[in-house]
Give the backbone structure.
Amino acid sequence: MAGEAGTPLERAMSTRQLRVGLLVDLRAAPGGDADLGTRARATLARLADAERAGLPAVWLSEHHGFADQHLAQPLTFAAAVAARTSTLRIGTAVLVAPLAHPLALAEQAALVDHLSGGRLELGLGAGWRHEEFVAFDVDRAERYQVLEERAGGLAALWGSGVAVPPPVQAPLPLWVGGRGPRGARIAGRVGAGLLWLDRELLGPYREALAGAGHPLDAARMGGLVNMVLADDPDEVRAAVRVPGRARAESYRGSETSSSGMERLRVWRCEEAADAIAAMVEGLPVTDIFCLERLAGLPERLVRRHVELVSGGPSPAPRGTDSLGRPGGRDGRMDQMTRRADAPATTHGVGEHQKLTVAGLFAERVRSSSARTALVSDHEEWDYAALGGRVTACRERLRAWGLAQGERVAFIFPHAPEAVPWVLAAACHGLVLVPINTRLAPGEVAAVLVDADVRGVLVHPSMATWVDELATTLADQWFIWVPEAVEPEPGAPLDDAPIAGQDPLWILYTSGSTGTPKGCVLSHQAGVTIGFNLFYAMALRSTDRYLSTMPLFHVGGLGFTLGSVHAGAAVVYSGSADAADMAGSIRRHRITCATVPFVGALVDHVEREACELTTLRLVVWGSQMERPETIARVGSVLGAEWLGMFGSTESGNVALITDANDELGHPGCVGRPVPGLVATVLDPATGQPVPEGDTGELCVRGPSTMSEYWRNPEATAATLAGGLGALGRPGPSWA
């Protein structure tokens, strides 16, 4: 981490390679609580929010017969977590192995790994409560022997075909929970991680690893830090006395009480940083976690604890990069402490900036091959099929002699078959110049000449439209690409030597203030644009996004990459007409949609009394709808409103609003997305204007353009001082 960014805990732990997660037990509060279903749904919602804020992992515990209804089936709940999230690692800490049939354990673990797209961390333990072994009619005296048999036998069950299918991950990350030397040796012999934070166990663990022929650098440890984070520890200490005592008594009530639990600590972030640093010093610790919720603690304090662990709401001072909603950097515990070898599905706000579009898409194909990627009224492609089509398109680009770094124009209708060509160009290292199909042929010719393109990829349906171009631009190739491309195997999608700063797209402005200029956006910018939309829309792998923005627009390209970030589906269906859109939303179970005519859709749904039961989010431009229309989005459509403000130069989405912002602060266009700095400057002096004054809204961040193509004067004027001007002078409160 550079400089003094982040919370004290973040800074203190910046050199550690740790994932900091939450442990879920679903317990009821002392003296009564909501029913199990209500508690489970509330926990799932908190985890989804925490994931959007940056939480990397959740761990689920197991106990049976507790009066407070402790979570009894962690893999069942893990499946629910998998369905509600898209990046969280999902661990069991621990599943009591002697109480599970080996085949059932192997099948259930594999199912969760498939549902999650390869995110399961399977932690197994021997168990200790006498009552649980009696209830399951299992001999407690043999629990360590059975634990080792279960842990060591899973690979054989999957490999022999007895348990089918095997997990997505090969091998599945395996942990053994053991708070004594015997458990540590079992973890070492089976080559698993040791899920207990005790430096006295490192010796027997490493000895057992070496004795079984496992490399010593495979050693990894993790476990519970029994803490609650708070802004005011004294307030929380007073609040935890009763629920903390009840939690301790629930263990003491066992006939054989031995939870091994240290007393609960309440810390500020900086105190936790010091304690954790001392705890893990010299140990191969990769994962720690703390309780997600102490049953009986007031909900306000629970939410703040979760926010401090994962990242959460914080003040959004003018000119900062905070959204003022879950995901802000203030209070962030582990944003930069992820494992260096974590899969790309767990990347954080900063890590995505190192990627290329080719690498992002290749990782998604590898990790989410069976998830739906593209949908039309006629067919659906999963990510594996889309990857095969991208490979086929890339092979054609190679066969046509198009080489990395060359500029290629792109003339396509708004249709799913355009997507493989866009991604293939990115994977091949070409610089794509998407052409606005609403331009006149003469305007298109000017763009093609200015961009100095090597060739033009044209969809057959556009043949008549480009006849005039073909006669006036004889030096350019016009390549008539096939309407349908069948998937085929081929070279890895991300094998081209592409760097994050290499140009990805040249997108021409509308020319509303002069001659159209080509905004050069790099691979880093493209990945960041997609991440900003993924983050702002809280996209999940289960989402189905209705695309209404064409792929010659930075928004259309960005929404596609946002869906790739999440492993979500992009749907091409109907038109922006209200009746068409309502029909598409119902037919394709749409959850998110960009809606150009929000008022018309609201009026249609209200007039026709048609329910859009799957729709959760409506997206359109900030301050482009009347307040009364925004207010009806929730009451009529049953969806949330998300306003977006930006330009091609800023990478499309620079600031976002919700309904409360636009209804409560008339004239606002939002707060910056993560990693983007927004400042209102005096155009004459280049200095920030006082609060309440007007000026020019300027932004800086990794999603912005690199330059105007072959226009150094305009580039210098727009990127002066490192801040790119965005829009005309407006209210100082963005």
